[in-house]
Amino acid sequence: MPQSQGKPRAFLTRLLPEPAPTILRGAFTLEGNLEDVQLTAAEMRAGVSGARAVVCTLTDRIDGELLDAAGPGLVVVSTCAVGFDNIDVGAASERGVLVATTPDVLTDATAELTWALILAAARRVAEGDRLVREGRFLGWSPSLLLGRELRGRVLGVVGMGRIGRAVAQIAHAFGMQVLYVRRGRAPEPQPMPPGTVWHRASTLDALLAEADVVTLHVPLSNETRHLISRRELALMKPGAILVNAARGPVIDERALVEALAAGRIFAAGLDVYAGEPSLTPGLAELPNVVLLPHLGSATEKTRRRMAEFAAGNAVAAVTGSGVVHAVNAEAVVAAAKQRARELGALGGDGVPFRA
What we know:
With 355 residues, the protein is α/β, with parallel strands linked by helices.
């Protein structure tokens, strides 16, 4: 199109909500996948050649091979997500490519979804829905689908980042105590309802032994993969509930199936899965697990804001206008400095761009 002549090229891996496409077209020649379907790895490698920006989603695997297929002109991979475990950040940094994410905008939506899972698991909502739909509801009974009350119980928050803190704040409304574990220092003080107290557990083991509900809010990494496995499940209270709205592989799902089937814990609520979208064998057959199709950020407002954020990151990285929310800015700058020194292109601490 004539109005796109001279613009750098951006490759979109999957159609995002407006205003993201419009924002991208304002700065780029926008190409790629303009449908809400998943591209194969081969299709992505074939399409990214010559792109200055790649705008992707959490289901797209961005590795060294794809980065090389894009070529040396690639400036940024901007994902429409807060997590970035699908991106080889090290490979991107080595190639001087920024990896940008969308922090903050999905915090409240994911926290609310977490509480939907907690309540559904505690009060056996999914089981009740199936009972009614299948015509098996024969009337009120004093022993029908007895669940767990939350008031006075302990909520264990594993990972006290933005989403973990938002989940913990809601606990006050249910009269729950909050126990948390977090790497690094305690979370920053923030306004909370009078009487709210958060206690930091000495270890994950200590939290698991005391919490009535355990909710996971950690990024996926080598350290957090199978953070909750057979050993950790054995430490939990027999009537406890486990909720995961973070990343599927944080839980060893085979061990979880065993624990749920044996009644080792009361219930679980999952929004994410280790082999997503496939389920671990046995999981779908269990009555005491609530299964959602990765809906953590799935509100109209949040998905629009995420898409807008991702598009803005791409534009800012390539044009130099605005702030890029990059997770590897320091590594990219360091790599650029090293390359410049090797080539003799720059002296001192000069770098060819600002992140």
